[in-house]
C-alpha cells in the first residue's frame, strides 16, 4: 500500500523526534564516559563532549585503587543481592497467603497493607523505629525496612489470582499442602513476574544512597552510591585519595598531576552505573514478559 506524502512526512517527523529524544537521553552518559577516559587537566579546558581527546585510564585507577570505594562496592553488591532475594521471598509468600479467599481477616489485612502504601508515618518516626529495632549503623538497615513492598505485593497478588484455580484445586485434591502448591505451581508460573519485580527491587537497592547517608554513620558500611553522593559535594580530590599510604599505592603507574576532581567524579559515576546497565539486557525479556502478563491479567 502506497502512502501519501503527508503520511511519509509525518512518519519522518516522528522518527526525527524519537532520535532526538534518544540522543538527549544517551548524550549525558557519553559525555561522562568521555570525561572519565580523558586526562583530567585536559578535560578541564573544555571541548570534550562525545569522545576523549587524550585517552587515559588514570581516573579509573584512582577510583578502583581506593580501598573505601572498593569496600563500598562490596557493600552495594551484598545489599543488592540479599535485599532482592529477601524482598522477592517476602513478596511471594505474602501474596500467596493473601490469595486464599478463605483466609480469616483477609479483607482487613489487605486494607491495612493498602493504608501503609498510601500513607507514611514520616522520617522521624521511621528513624526512631529503626533505633528501637537496633538497625541503625547495621548492614540490616538496608535489608529489613525494604523487605516488604505493598505495591510489589499487590502486583504479585493480582498475578497469582490470574492463575487458573483448577490447577491449584487439582493439586489440593491430590493431597498437596500449601507449600507444595507454592513450590510446584505458583513459583514456576510466576518466574516472569518475579524477574520483573526482582529488577525493580535490585535497581532500587543499587541506586539507593539515602539509607547510607542518614541511617549509617560508619564509613565501612556505606554503599557506593552514598560515597558518590559525598564525593559529588567534595571540594578537593583528597576526599577520594584518603590517607598518605593510599596516595602512594594509587600513584604507582598513575600521573596524579593530570587528574582532577571532576574527572574522578565521572569515573566514579561510570563505575557505579555500568554494572546495573550490564545486568539489564539479560533480564529485559523477563521484564517485558512479566509487565505484559501483569497488564493483561490486571
Structure write-up:
This protein has 298 residues and is mostly helical. It has a single domain, classed as MetI-like (MetI-like fold). Helix content is 71%, strand content 0%.
The termini sit apart by 37 Å
The structural class is mainly alpha
Question: Any guess at the CATH architecture?
Answer: Orthogonal Bundle
What count of structural domains? 1
Main beta sheet: strand number and arrangement? none
Strand-residue proportion? under 5%
* SSE order: HHHHHHHHHHHHHHH
For this structure, the CATH topology is: MetI-like fold
Mean pLDDT: 82
Low-confidence stretches: 244-249, 294-298
Number of helices: 15
Q: Kindly state the percentage of residues in helix.
A: over 70%
Protein name: Carbohydrate ABC transporter permease
Pfam family, one: BPD_transp_1
Membrane topology: Multi-pass membrane protein
Organism: Paenibacillus lycopersici
Summary, kept brief:
InterPro entries: MetI-like, MetI-like_sf. It comes from Paenibacillus lycopersici. The protein has 298 residues and is an all-alpha fold.
